[in-house]
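Per your request, structure below.
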């Protein structure tokens, strides 16, 4: 049975390791080891990554767990993506990761439903995200929710620049 809950500070190390595992299994083959290591240290490390971010009241997290093991999560916060003329109340889905054995099991849908509901409850008129240009599975997933591609975004992994696509969902 999959349980969904808000993580605690104590979940930080396990959540960071799950996120790192998901990122590396999906994208690790694309990068030089030094770029991947630099990205993972910043995104998932204890000082600047997920464990530290659990303390940030501007960010909201939701995790999916099976038998006490974290298998997926979503992170929602204020918009930081470079969108022209964006409403200051807009929010951003910063991460939505699900370990590959759980793809197709409804985990991503449940986490996305939570994300949209939480953003609406916070009064956000739009929800933004970015997705790797070649991650077609994720793009189709977001498009099914009504997200529209609104342009290009440079996403840095260490010193490597990737092309991401910016997506917007109107919540009104």
């Amino acid at each position: 049975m999959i349980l969904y809950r808000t993580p605690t500070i104590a979940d930080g190390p396990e959540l960071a390791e799950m996120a790192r595992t998901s990122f590396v299994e999906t994208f690790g083959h694309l990068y030089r080891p030094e770029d991947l290591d630099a990205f993972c240290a910043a995104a998932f490390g204890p000082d600047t990554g997920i464990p530290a971010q659990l303390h940030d009241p501007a960010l909201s997290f939701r995790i999916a767990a099976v038998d006490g093991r974290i298998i997926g999560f979503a992170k929602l916060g204020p918009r930081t993506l470079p969108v022209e003329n964006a409403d200051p109340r807009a929010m951003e889905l910063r991460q939505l990761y699900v370990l590959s054995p759980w793809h197709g099991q409804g985990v991503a849908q449940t986490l996305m439903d939570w994300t949209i509901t939480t953003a609406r409850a916070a009064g956000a008129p739009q929800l933004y995200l970015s997705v790797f240009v070649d991650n077609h599975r994720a793009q189709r997933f977001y498009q099914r929710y009504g997200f529209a591609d609104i342009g290009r975004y440079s996403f840095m992994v260490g010193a490597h620049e990737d092309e991401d696509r910016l997506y917007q969902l109107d919540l009104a």
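DSSP finds five helices and seven strands in the chain.

Regards,
D.
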